[in-house]
Amino acid sequence: MRITDHNILCLRSYLYSPFNRNGCPETPGIRSKIIYLRKNYHFGPQKISMYLKRYEKPLPGHRVQVDVKFIEPIAGLKKRHCQYTAVDDCTRIRVLRIYPKNDQRTATQFLYYLLVRLPFKVEVIQTDNGAEFQGSFHYHVLDKGVGHVYIKPASPRLNGKEVVTRTEFP
């Protein structure tokens, strides 16, 4: 193979960037994600490559991550509320809804709301192992023709939605 200026530029970018295919530069969207991860989290090439492969899915609806966060009571009110959040891994579209209770019935209501609000068909829903996502919720998901996957217990790092929820509220 002849060495040209273009080959050298591709080789240089390949050496310093973790997510190149065949030595050619990546897309601007992926490039900006790499820069963000390096600046804010100090990730190296292997960690960035693993992160991009884990949370980037090829098609919208391929995997939607759902989780719950408790919201502190508003001043003057004693009742706590919970926020259900769903994030699509491909498009990063978020669906949020606040409910007064956290149980399987509420999770099922959010499931129906989620399937109506998303502009594409959902193939798989990923949740943690919380009590609200067990039993009847699981069977409602399967009845809708959607797969349901649990993340490993005690591993919130596998749930990409956890990062989004932490950044919504201080």
Structure explained in plain terms:
It is a single chain. The chain is of the alpha/beta class. The chain has two domains: 5-54, no CATH class; 64-168, Ribonuclease H-like superfamily/Ribonuclease H (Nucleotidyltransferase, domain 5, 2-Layer Sandwich), CATH 3.30.420. Helices cover 40% and strands 18% of the residues. The protein contains six helices and five strands. The longest helix has 14 residues, at 28-41. It is globular. It starts with a helix and ends with a helix. Mean pLDDT is 76; it is low at 11-15 and 21-25.
Helix-strand layout with pairing:
Elements: H1 5-16, H2 28-41, H3 45-55, E1 64-71, E2 81-88, E3 94-99, H4 104-117, E4 124-127, H5 136-143, E5 147-150, H6 160-168
Parallel strand pairs: 1-4, 4-5
Antiparallel strand pairs: 1-2, 2-3
Helix pairs in contact: 4-5
